[in-house]
Design goal:
2 copies of one chain form a homodimer. By secondary structure, chain A is of the alpha+beta class. In chain A, about 25% of the residues lie in helices and about 25% in strands. In chain A, the strands form 2 sheets. In chain A, strands 1, 2, 3, 4, 5, 6 and 7 form a 7-stranded mixed sheet that branches. In chain A, strands 8-10-9 form a 3-stranded antiparallel sheet. Chain A is elongated, with a radius of gyration of 19 Å. Chains A and B meet through helix 1 and strand 5 of A and helix 1 and strand 5 of B. The structure holds a DNA duplex (27 and 27 nucleotides).
DNA sequence: TCAAAAGTGTTTCTCGTACACCCATGT
DNA sequence: ACATGGGTGTACGAGAAACACTTTTGA
């Protein structure tokens, strides 16, 4: 309760769970740590909040900055929302660190550009399934992110962040299939989808997609704002 | 990206949005600040994360500790979950502070004991509606908490945290009415409720409640775990 | 006896679910 | 021609929504 500012302070880090879908798999962006602690091991990308020059950057700014540094993608091209704060006392063996974790969704069309732009040596897209043994408490953060995306997928327009700007019904359904780990019924998904169209959330775009089989109509997301709620 | 530990560190605070229902109104626990900044103004209860002795306390521990200090209620009697981190650079005029906010739900039966137990001078239950002008960014934190509770009420067993251990259907419906600001249909709510009973989430308790009118059956929540997901 | 809340029933509509089937295209 | 995914139809059931009605109590 003592509301004084004189006391030792923890470090505040910002960590990112950057997700995309490649080859029908949910992937997460991991780095290989180049320094202790956990040197040589894999971890989520992240960094410390800058507090200089006073008063420093907003938490959200810090997350956006890290995201940009780590992916090389233009700001605004990637969906970003806060996951929460992770603050187990022993999560960093060296000193006290609070991590504010964020999750980001990268369109598959942009994913290939990420490795090129990243500064860190060992940046890679790793399959989420089977990923384990990350540094710090990053296993737990990753798990929380996946749970969160799975839940939010149902009630917020997240899926549109994992397809190209224009997309077919099949492509969108594929996002759900991958994230939920099971196939949706084609016809039922289509109906749900078309309902969104005449609610005005989606509109048919011009052109069509020729992807091997029968060409499909393409749509575009126009619903309200894609921004998070905060 | 520089993953070094040598840099100025922000303070980390833990703030609480403690909610209850009294007199058919959603109430939030507020304190009157006794020192700068914002001396004399109202604010959410909270305090700084303790990092001594090394490595200090977990974030969740800190929240529980504050909750206990502020309400005087026994630990475990109150539902607590994390809201998120609030870190606008200018949120504290004096120095850089990151706030990790939590929301708590106090049963109406316990609410009256809170003022007695609190140490701070000006602890009060204030109606959420119309509350404004809180210190720091606490208006925003409060708004986020209310939005979150409204959403979670639908898909997690939150309502049971705002009734006595045993409760009538009407009492539970009242929670929804107050939080959503509009009355549910009696019959429809009842059906939803009874569905939970034969799903095993609720069980009829012994006895009945005599509260003025016709006595009502009382129920008890037995569903899985009440704990948050983290 | 009257108001108020408990408790019950009914009807309509929407949506999720499961499944069957046709259509257009590249190989 | 045939496999593949796009596109369409149908039928059932659970649940949301709106509303009317009976029952039990205290005042």
């Amino acid at each position: 309760m003592s509301y004084t500012y004189e006391h030792p302070r923890p470090s505040v880090a910002v960590d990112l769970v950057v997700l995309t879908i490649v080859d029908s798999e949910l992937k997460v962006l991991l780095i290989r740590r180049g320094e202790p602690p956990f040197e040589g091991e894999r971890a989520l990308p992240g960094g410390f909040l800058r507090t200089e020059p006073e008063p420093g950057e907003d938490l959200e700014q810090a997350a956006q900055r890290e995201l940009q540094e780590e992916t090389g993608l233009p700001p605004g091209a990637v969906f970003l929302d806060q996951l929460g704060a992770f603050g187990r006392a022993d999560r960093d063996p060296r000193t006290r660190v609070i991590s504010v974790a964020w999750y980001a969704l990268v369109r598959p069309t942009l994913a290939p550009f990420v490795k090129a732009g990243g500064d860190a040596a060992g940046v890679e897209w790793a399959a989420v399934e089977g990923t384990q043994g990350l540094a710090f408490d990053h296993d737990a953060i990753l798990a929380a992110a996946v749970r969160r995306v799975r839940e939010d997928l149902e009630r917020r327009p997240l899926a549109f962040e994992l397809v190209p700007e224009t997309f077919t019904i099949g492509e969108l359904r594929h996002v759900f299939d991958v994230i939920h780990g099971q196939a949706e019924d084609k016809g039922n998904f289509r109906r749900r989808f078309l309902r969104m169209v005449d609610e005005g959330l989606l509109e048919q775009a011009s052109g069509q997609r020729r992807t091997g089989r029968r060409p499909a109509r393409v749509y575009r997301f126009v619903g309200a704002q894609r921004a998070p709620r905060r």
